[in-house]
Design goal:
The chain has 284 residues and is of the alpha/beta class. It is built from eleven helices and eight strands. Strands 1-2-4-3-5-6-7-8 form an eight-stranded mixed beta sheet, with helices on both faces. Helix 1 links the parallel strand 3 and strand 4. The longest helix is centred in the N-terminal third of the chain and has 14 residues.
Amino acid sequence: MNTARSWHPDGKWQTLDAFAGARIHFVRPRPHAGPPLLLIHGFAQSSWVWRFVLPQFCQQFDAIAVCLPGLGWSDKPTAVSYRFDDQRARLLELLDRLKVARTHVCGNSMGGALAMALAALNPDRVDRLVLVGPAAHGLFPAAWIAALQREGMAPLWSLPGFDLLLKLGLTHGAYKHLPIDDHYMAHFLAPLRDHGAVRATLRIARYFRADLQALDPFLPRIRAPTLLISGRHDRLVPRHIVRRVAARVPETRQLVYDASGHCPQEEEPGRFATDVRNFLLETA
């Protein structure tokens, strides 16, 4: 279990009953600085993916960058479920403990799927929604590969050369221009070295496709104004999936970032922060 680690000096932990008494990590640099904004990262990632835009968001929002339970700097107990419904309940408990009644929500990849789950199933808690390369139900290789994962594969993650395979996958699958150097890999891999991290990650992966399928019928229920941002070079969540989300979520506008892959907040952070800020601060 992590005891003192965080990528950010304002990193904090909150013990959650809905997480078997384990801790969830979040970064909240300026509480009550403005309207709340919950930032949710993607699969095998952490709140670190918001590092380039968090300073800008904190100027006008009460930004809360969370590490999903089982990932990042949050605890990773082995005897709990990491299904979408359970993760959604934990995010709601975190908001309750932070005394956040309603919030804007911005989610990337799997975090985008969880953001849609919050907006669809807990509409009273979500103001505006930003989806960044959101994972959704449909045919694409990453979801099928994830569904094949089992916890028994955990020893493979310790084999020589596996870190290099991850680096190659990130370089050619997730990003277009971002350098995947030693600094990046150190921050990406650090949470995956935590006790129980690989097994939790594999458990999330195994049910990923099934959870996306279960969420799909609820997407038309979303009533929050929604901004859908995607990178033109995203190889993890292809364009037909993004188009399907746009067709399923009622009040959606789209932006495509020509110089980005799966994570525009890292590859084009200046534009991203400005576009998100302008959307969230719009008057209805």
